[in-house]
Amino acid sequence: MKIWVKKAKGLKGEITLPGDKSITHRAYIMALLARGKTCIKNPLKSDDTDATLNFILSLGAKIEKRSPEETIVSSEGMDNLTEPKDVLNAMNSGTTARLFSGVLSGCPFFSVITGDDSLKRRPMERVTVPLMEMGAKIYGRKNASLLPIAISGGNLKGIHYKLPVPSAQVKSAILLAGLFADGDTEIEETIKSRDHTERMFKHFGINLDIQGGRIKIHGGERFSGREVVIPGDISSASFFIAAGTVVENSEIIIKDVGLNETRTGFIKALLEMGAEIKIENERVINEEKVGTIIVRSAKSLKGISISKEMVPTLIDEIPLLALVACFAEGETIITGAEELRKKESDRLHTTVDGLKRLGADVEPLPDGMIIRGGKRLKGGEVESYGDHRIAMTFAIGGLAIEEGVYVNDFECVSVSFPEFLEKLEALKK
Questions:
Q1: Which residues are catalytic?
Q2: What's the gap between Cα 27 and its chain centre?
């Protein structure tokens, strides 16, 4: 599906966003592992989260209610999971494949995980290596480094594992396996990655010992279902924050958004560039900070530098940041972002390609890019490369470019934000 996004005269209004994708995944997994009923309010319904929902159903969970407002899951708990009757298909969801690798490594039965063509190209050894060190038997292409993989789980032992790269998915897979393991499992990370799993564990009453960059869990804990409220997705909000910043005559209010400090790097970067963003009504709901974001058109923006230490807090938003940097004076330099080459697309390449097609002055780097802002962008046609975040990034670009932008294969946004265009249209003046 090709879409055309034309320049907007301004964006005004108040919106709420679908539930956070990362937290929805984890809520479904915890609902499977917990005994009893878990009520998940404001879960994201998307292709990715549906993949996780299908996994938990295949492993024995039951859905007692499903509506846009809430999903109620019942389960017999982690000691009573059932062997899946068929191959488990994670589709395009790396979170589903990697986190369930940890769960299934702890289960005393056989299972197979596969995915779509894109996911089959993404690296799995970062999770399979530590899980095999814990005692899981995992088989797959190229020494279990690519999907599909087969897992024969059970009889895990705790390990100490230092993460070679910051990765919330790897950390989460090991922590989930650690629930099933004998003894302590300790993870060491030198740069902090997203901590939604740790917060979800705490909400469900699971004890974690967190000291600096070390996270320790003791195997054998059991827990019961409870209510989980999913905040609005900060990564989805970022598209509207960017739009409100670069489109003239704009004021957007985004309510009930998750403000986890491991996810707010994009807001901090834009504020450093000169964006006009305020946060109000901050509070904590099931261990996650939530608030209202107000963004107005920026009077002027300047280029900044993004270093390796900052990257984990805005990893999903780097393509969007590069787009905003085109509207800033001076250079924006992004380094330490080589992890983007292993996403749904090579996001360093696909971002640079799209920006160049629109006339931007952008120079690729092995681990990032340099954007020289201030040059007028022109309308054009860009490829999404089947990557939802690339598709939505260039849709936002169309709102601020005189001739608008055509985006090819826009249907890929269904993996994370099916309502994107609907929400965008509601803000146009």
A1: 316
A2: 14
